Every structure is written in structure tokens, then in C-alpha cells.
């Protein structure tokens, strides 16, 4: 399938699912600080892998994924109503921890650069 079409469908799914999570899913397990990071749709449009980022501890992340998995039917039905597709893809939610990993790496870089500045300051004096 055309990659541009797959990208447009992915973006439309991302928009619809983000709206559903923020406005219509009432499950208390779903953290209000949940965002859709990325959506990957298979070439045959049979599956949509939705990558979710959750602000909170490990328990909040697991609860959010559980709540979203329980709401799969509702989300898929609403996607079918809002997006004009012949076949609505099956949804798979995945926890995306790339933001936390990026923050951790940034913190490590800051520590190393601070140590280098201290060493250079000590050597120059």
C-alpha cells in the first residue's frame, strides 16, 4: 500500500484515539496524563499498533494499559464511525518509554559535562 496513505491513516487514528482518551473514556485506571506518541498501521490495515506515553509511576502505566485494553472494543467502534475505512484495524496498545529514556540520557550527559567542567577548572587553577 502507498506509504503516504498509511501515514495519513495512522495520523487520523492517532487524532481520533487521542480525542477518545481525553474526552470519552471514563475508566478511572486510564491516567489523565496519557498521550499517543505514535501509531503504526500494517500494510494490509489489519492491525494498528498504538504507542502510549503515560506520566506517572510504573503502577499508573500498567493500570492505564490495562484500562485501554479493556476499552479496545469501544475505541475500535468509534474509530469505525469517525474514519471512513472499509476495514477497521485491530488495536494493540504498547507502552512507549522513550520520553523517560531521553530524560535519563539527558541527565547522564549533564552529569558528565559537569564533571568535565570541574576537572578542567581544577587543572587550569
From TrEMBL:
Chief localisation class: cytoplasm
Entry keyword annotation includes Ribonucleoprotein: no
PROSITE patterns assigned: RBFA
UniProt keyword Transcription regulation, yes or no: no
GO biological process: one example: maturation of SSU-rRNA
Subcellular location as annotated: Cytoplasm
Pfam families, per the entry: RBFA
A single cellular component GO annotation: cytosol
Sorted UniProt keywords: Cytoplasm, Ribosome biogenesis
GO molecular function, one term: ribosomal small subunit binding
Role summary: One of several proteins that assist in the late maturation steps of the functional core of the 30S ribosomal subunit. Associates with free 30S ribosomal subunits (but not with 30S subunits that are part of 70S ribosomes or polysomes). Required for efficient processing of 16S rRNA. May interact with the 5'-terminal helix region of 16S rRNA.
Family statement drawn from the similarity comment of this UniProt entry: Belongs to the RbfA family.
Subunit structure: Monomer. Binds 30S ribosomal subunits, but not 50S ribosomal subunits or 70S ribosomes.
Cited HAMAP family: RbfA (MF_00003)
Name of the protein: Ribosome-binding factor A
Organism whose genome encodes this protein: Tepidimicrobium xylanilyticum
Gene this chain is encoded by: rbfA
